[in-house]
Amino acid sequence: MDTTARISSEHGLPGHLVDFVAALRRHGVSVGPGETIDAARVLGALDLIHREHVREGLAAALLRRSGQRQAFDTLFELYFPAALGAGSGEVEVPRVDDAEGGPVDVDALRDILADLLRDGDTAALAELARAVVDALGRSGAAGTGIQGAGGRPSWSAYQALRMLSPETLLARILADLQDATGDDTAFSDEVLRREIRARIAAFRAMITDEVRRRTAEIRGRQEVAKSAVPKQIEQVEFLSAYAEQLAQLRRTVYPLARRLASRLAVRRKHAKRGTLDMRRTLRRSMSTGGVPMRPAYRTRRPGRPELVILCDVSGSVAGFSHFTLLLVQALREQFSKVRVFAFVERADEVTHLFDPGAELSGVMQRVLREADLVAFDGHSDYGGSFGSFAEHWGDAVTSKSSLLVLGDARTNYRDPNLAVLKRLVAQARHAHWLNPEPRRQWGSGDSAALRYADVLPMHECRTAAQLTAVVEALLPV
């Protein structure tokens, strides 16, 4: 019986589905009652023996936004596993001298793996991954069955992959495929090489998933999910994101901007009227015996303010500044005018790099290369940057301007220049500071965040979700 079908008979599928949905919610996937009901209908309509059909059916019913599939797939593997325990399959691990329970014949096992990778047999590779983890993935010496803490087995994907070394089979598989196709041109070689790498990467992922499944049976699904399920990209912290995550964040800018624009449109629709005009309301009430039957409202004069951005582009803060600037660029129609100033030790205007239609893929490198931002050692100097901005572009901030400061407020123990910032804030219509550091770290070490927070409102913006909420609240209506 398929594992999914076994779960339905042993544990009760409705309750198991509710547990799965709860796990999705814990990891940032928004699933409401409607989606849960749809998922239950999907499970009622599908044959549970076909696990991939169940996976795709649940994904279609439960997922409503892009970027959630990786978390869904990881949790699906934990809650609807392909097997229980060691499982069973037609692929067997060869043993030295064919002795039952003897040491694993690693060379023969690599031959089997090479043949399956060459043929691209996904089902057989999945069975092999299960057998490899059971034979080579136990902690301690291979095949010894050494137990982990508390007498329970422990599993290691690293150990299994290190002994198998699938990457070293690439040249051998490539030669076999070239002999089979008879085509040895440079282009076909590169195509085959990429395909083999993709198959090897998929097999490595199978090993990792299998180790995670076996570990979850021992430690529990929730415990394993804490470290196994990747964060939603909108929940990744700017200051700890690596290059690939920052690239993913940048790809989410325009979907975020569209959602913000639609929410702003709804806010404007519900805020067409201004505040109550008491004088006109009382005048109207004279025709109804003093009863204010027809309240009068002041006419709203919504204007699109100018936006002036001062952003720290030094070190890891640059990733946060870049994402924020891309978001503002996507929302620039909400403002009558946008001016952008970057700073490290001193400020310089970089508005032209963010003009409509400008190429933004490598814009931060251009900012650092073309703008005059460094005076001495290249370390952040907020006070000096505020001073140079006020000296050369102080008139950019007016009573029509919204001033936005982006940075972690770490001054390297230099003068924060609060007096100049106070003057700029007084000139502006609105002023806000977006800080990517956790609030608990404000004021620690060389952070002047708490001192700056006394001058203008400071908002914690560690993730794209937080930043989106803050920007939505600050956008004009």
**In the CATH scheme, what's the topology name of the largest domain?**
Rossmann fold
Shape: globular
Helix vs. strand class? alpha/beta
Q: How many structurally independent domains? A: 4
Number of strands: 8
Major β-sheet annotation: 6 strands, mixed
CATH architecture of the largest domain: 3-Layer(aba) Sandwich
Which stretches are poorly predicted, pLDDT < 50 over at least 5 residues?
140-149
Helix-residue proportion = 40-55%
- Gyration radius, rounded: 30 Å
Average predicted local confidence, pLDDT: 84
Strand portion: 5-15%
CATH class of the largest domain: Alpha Beta
Helix segment tally? 19
Give the termini distance in whole angstroms.
59 Å
Can you list the strand order of the major beta sheet?
A: 5-4-3-6-7-8
Helix and strand sequence:
HHHHHHHHHHHHEHEEHEEHHEHEHEH
Description of the structure:
By secondary structure, the protein is an alpha/beta fold. It folds into four domains: 3-79, no CATH class; 96-230, no CATH class; 243-266 and 303-474, Rossmann fold (3-Layer(aba) Sandwich), CATH 3.40.50; 272-299, no CATH class. 51% of the residues lie in helices and 8% in strands. The protein has helices at 3-26, 33-45, 51-62, 69-79, 106-119, 122-136, 157-164, 170-181, 186-219, 221-228, 243-251, 253-269, 278-285, 317-330, 363-370, 382-393, 418-427, 449-453, 464-474; strands spanning 273-276, 297-299, 306-312, 337-343, 347-349, 401-406, 430-435, 458-460. The chain has a six-stranded mixed beta sheet with strand order 5-4-3-6-7-8. The protein has a two-stranded antiparallel sheet with strand order 1-2. Strand 3, helix 14 (317-330) and strand 4 form a beta-alpha-beta unit. Helix 5 (106-119) crosses helix 8, helix 6 (122-136) crosses helix 9 (186-219) and helix 16 (382-393) packs across helix 17. The protein is globular and about 100 Å long. The protein starts with a helix and ends with a helix.
